[in-house]
Structures are given as C-alpha cells and as structure tokens.
Amino acid sequence: EAQVTQNPRYLITVTGKKLTVTCSQNMNHEYMSWYRQDPGLGLRQIYYSMNVEVTDKGDVPEGYKVSRKEKRNFPLILESPSPNQTSLYFCASSLHFLPPDTQYFGPGTRLTVL
Amino acid sequence: QKEVEQNSGPLSVPEGAIASLNCTYSDRGSQSFFWYRQYSGKSPELIMFIYSNGDKEDGRFTAQLNKASQYVSLLIRDSQPSDSATYLCAVTTGGGNKLTFGTGTQLKVEL
Can you list the residues of chain B whose pLDDT is less than 70? Predict the structure, then answer.
C-alpha cells in the first residue's frame, strides 16, 4: 500500500530534550516536506526537499533541522525543543513538486513540549 | 497582510445546496493553486488544483481562478453531509518551490 508513515504519532517531551520525528514514504517520491499546523495559523511549511541531499527552508524553519540522505526518509529533528513547538506536524511527499503528482500527507504527529 | 486568506467560517449550507468557498492571495507570481479537504483529526487530502484562469470542473467540484483579482474559489454542488470538513486553499510562493496554505474554511452541510 502506497503511504507516508510518521513516528511517533504522539509525543510528550520536556524542554531541551532532543527528539526526532521520522517520516518515510514507499512511493519513490522525490519531493518531501514538513508542515506544522496550529489553530488560527493553518498549515505552515517548515522545510522541504526536492530530492536526496537537497533541502531548503520553508516559512518557519527556526528550531528545526532536517536531512535527506536517502529518497524514502525525511526526518525532522528538534535539537532543543521549546513549548512554542507544541503543534501537530505533518510530513508530505509527491513524485515531483507540482500536480498532477498528488501530494500525500502522513497521518500527523502531535507533539507536546512541556 | 497574510499571503493566503480565507474566511474561517463556519459556512453552513443545507444538504443539496451549492457551497462556495473563497480564497485570496498576495503573491502575484503565484502560478499554481490547490484545494485540500481536511476532516477533523485527519490529514489534508488534495481535491482540486488549477493553473489557468477560468473554471475547472471535477465531478461536484469546480475550482475558479482569477489571477488579475488574485482570488481562487471552490464550488461544491449538491453538498452532502460527508462534505462537512475544513477546506484549505494553498498557493505556490517563493518562486514556485514552496506551498503556502490559508487557515482554512470550515464547511458544515446540514440535513
């Protein structure tokens, strides 16, 4: 089954404790992206990757890191999480950036930073 | 001014009616426009995209684009209770490699 998986789905952590949210797709997609979704602010792009070893900042990259060492994986790293990073995070992928290649979203990771 | 603006709603329509959702954007260089549907607690799913001025129809959905006025709209004909969701407008920005979303419009289709 074609899908984007994220782990963990739920995470409660404390300020300053490094964490990684994994994202994996099994569709051989070139484009992958991370978003955060907050009430009243909508979906905001954190980082995106056009292909392996090619990453770029989205609209809200501060406090986040990413890597794209292989095509299928695009982990999101929070080196020193803070409470303002409490949010719902989505990973997405598509064969290329624009349709008709549909962008598939993962199920989401709800992160709480205390 | 936000890059992509939508009325948050809720927009309530009776079953069988036409629901009209609107979106305006500020980047005149934007080339591609998308509508996503997001059910509560779920991830967004793409329902329509449009590149050219005018209308694009797909089943009960019609996307309308007017680049001169910088707005894009989504019409849902014969609205069903299953259409009740939040509809997100998204626009390519930053030279085309970034996707900027509006905050979404909540649609409620009432029996």
Answer: 1
